[in-house]
Amino acid sequence: MSQETAEAQGVKQEPADDKGVKTSSETELAQNVTKVDGKEPSVKYVPRTRLNEEIDKVDELQGKVEEYERAKLEAEGKLTEVNAKLKQENVDLKKFKKLHDELDNAVREEALSRLPEDKREKFKGLKTSDLKNVVDELVSIKNNPPDDVGAVTSKFKGQDWTDMKQDEVRKNWKDILASYKR
Predict the structure, then answer these.
(1) 123 near 112, Cβ under 8 Å?
(2) Which of 21, 114, 126, 169 could form a disulfide with 130 if both were Cys (CB 3.0 to 4.6 A apart)?
(3) Torsion from C-alpha of 165, 170, 172, 177, nearest 10 degrees
(4) Are 115 and 135 in contact (CB under 8 A)?
């Protein structure tokens, strides 16, 4: 029954073969596998630049197909259908533009509010991404390293060792001397 419904939907199902016959997906996988140094198979990977080029080509071709369909409808005299499609696209894009503008304004206002008032006017005309970078750079607090980096602080600094008990002085004599070496 599932095979009948699949065929009714236009999907062709192939029965599973246990006789060693490769299906189309297995042959495609086998074509993408090569032997490296004759030992181990590895999958061929497409470089990202090549993938981006192919995506750009597909997008360009889809745009050309849409333009061709519009030109065909216009040639047939069905301008009302073309007009209706363009109006619908326009309505959809207006929703996204409105949402984008609201989010952009919110991000800009938040970034400008982090700046001091005298600098707000100066950076008001920047693009949002640049404004965020400038604000992050200006607002970030950079801690200066301490002056005595790597120095061991002495617990006897500022104390007079002559006021200590004799057994404490003997116990901590190295530390007392180290505190005076600096």
Answers:
(1) yes
(2) 126
(3) 110
(4) yes
The DSSP code sequence of 111-129 is HHHTS-HHHHHHHTTS-HH
Query: Rounded to two decimals, what is the model's pTM?
Result: 0.37
Q: What digits encode the pLDDT tens for the residues 19-60?
A: 455 555 555 555 555 554 555 555 567 788 888 888 999 999
- Residue 179 to residue 182: CA distance in whole angstroms: 6
The model's pLDDT over 121-138, given as tens digits with 9 standing for 90+, comes to 888 888 988 989 888 888
Q: Cα–Cα distance between 31 and 43 in angstroms, integer?
A: 9
CA 30 to mean position of chain CA atoms: 33
